TrEMBL record:
InterPro entries: Membrane-Transporter-like, SLC26A/SulP_dom, STAS_dom, STAS_dom_sf. PANTHER family: SULFATE TRANSPORTER YBAR-RELATED. Gene3D superfamilies: STAS domain (3.30.750.24). The keyword NADP does not apply. Keywords: Membrane, Transmembrane, Transmembrane helix. It is a multi-pass membrane protein. The chain crosses the membrane at residues 104-123, 143-176, 197-227. Its main location: membrane. It comes from Paraconexibacter antarcticus. It comes from the Bacteria. This is SulP family inorganic anion transporter. The keyword Ion transport does not apply.
Length: 334
């Protein structure tokens, strides 16, 4: 960690030097580079409470809902990822539900003061925790208070800061907080391919659309599909015949849901089994209606061969779900 921090300092000095040189050369060469003040007027007073001047109608909700959902999803994901990183670095445990509630309430309140929605920032947090050694919420409060003083009290001074300097700061944050080891060829070879695919889909979606929400959404959907595919192949069915070959005992292991139902159905020997079959689900769990339909389909296959089937070992939730839906879904796999 010390080597990483030292290197970040070296890189930061190089970037700052580059920014300063670029600013000086641009001034000498007559190049007009924008500064912070060119991007918009800075506030000179504290924000005032006010009611948004928009009609409170369903049409207004339809306009803002897609953007609000995208901002909420991306902001919540970044805040939870930041909290997880901080917990790992500080070896503490934070209440993620509390963080989410606090962020939601704060974003609602800030709207009445003309503010923009916000969330935890991974880059700023990592600089604060790793480089500055922050360990309590007081550091976050101090950072926000200092930023407020800069904007409101020292706004004229902030306005003349060249944008090249801010670019240098963002480059420093990116270099010092990015985990370069995670994209090293040796690391990628050891990582599961599904995780690499999720990373590439997220980056590609964000770059192609210039929309972080779309990139994150595509990555989440890819991760869900990869997880479902992986779990679907974890179902195991063991078959044992009793000594007189009059009964076949099946033991099912794994999670039963829409992605694993067909694999479960195909695991039984309907035509060759004896007249009695006992299926033990004590090491399995039924999660959805597709799994219940699979059980009905199994019973239906055995009935057509004149075989009596007994299902045992269902846990309470699985038994309740099977009892509520069994029979109604019998034709789902017919």
């Amino acid at each position: 960690m010390v080597r990483s921090t030292d290197r970040s300092g070296v890189v930061g000095s190089e970037v700052a030097w580059w920014a300063a040189e670029a600013f000086v050369e641009s001034d000498r060469g007559g190049i007009d580079l924008p500064n912070v003040g060119d991007e918009g007027a800075l506030p000179s007073t504290l924000p005032l409470l006010g009611i948004p001047g928009v009609p409170f109608t369903l049409h207004t909700l339809q306009i803002i809902l897609p953007y609000s959902l995208a901002l909420a999803a991306v902001g919540l994901l970044e805040s939870l990822m930041t909290a997880r990183l901080v917990d790992d670095i500080t070896e503490t445990r934070s209440d993620k539900d509390r963080e989410a509630r606090g962020q939601g309430i704060a974003n609602i309140v800030t709207g009445f003061f003309g503010g923009m929605p916000g969330c935890a920032m991974i880059g700023q947090t990592m600089i604060n925790v790793r480089v500055s050694g922050a360990r309590t919420r007081l550091s976050t409060f101090c950072a926000g208070l200092f930023l407020l003083l800069l904007v409101v009290v020292l706004g004229d001074l902030v306005a003349v800061i060249p944008m090249t300097a801010l670019v240098a700061v963002m480059i420093l944050v990116s270099l010092s907080t990015f985990d370069w080891h995670s994209i090293a060829p040796a690391t990628l070879r050891r990582m599961p391919r599904s995780e690499t695919v999720v990373m590439l889909v997220t980056v590609a979606g964000t770059v192609a659309t210039d929309n972080l929400a779309i990139g994150v959404g595509a990555g989440v959907l890819t991760a869900m599909a990869a997880f479902a595919r992986k779990v679907a192949h974890l179902v195991e069915v063991d078959r044992v015949l009793d000594p007189d070959a009059s009964t076949a005992f099946y033991s099912v292991h794994g999670e039963l849901f829409f992605a694993s139902d067909q694999e479960l159905i195909d695991a039984f020997e309907y035509a060759t089994d004896p007249g009695r079959v006992i299926i033990d689900f004590s090491r399995a769990h039924v999660w959805d209606a597709s799994a219940v339909a699979a059980l009905d389909a199994i019973e239906g296959h055995y009935r057509r061969h004149g075989v009596a089937v007994t299902i045992t070992g269902l846990n309470e939730r699985s038994a309740d779900l099977h009892g509520a839906l069994s029979g109604e879904l019998a034709g789902a796999h017919a």
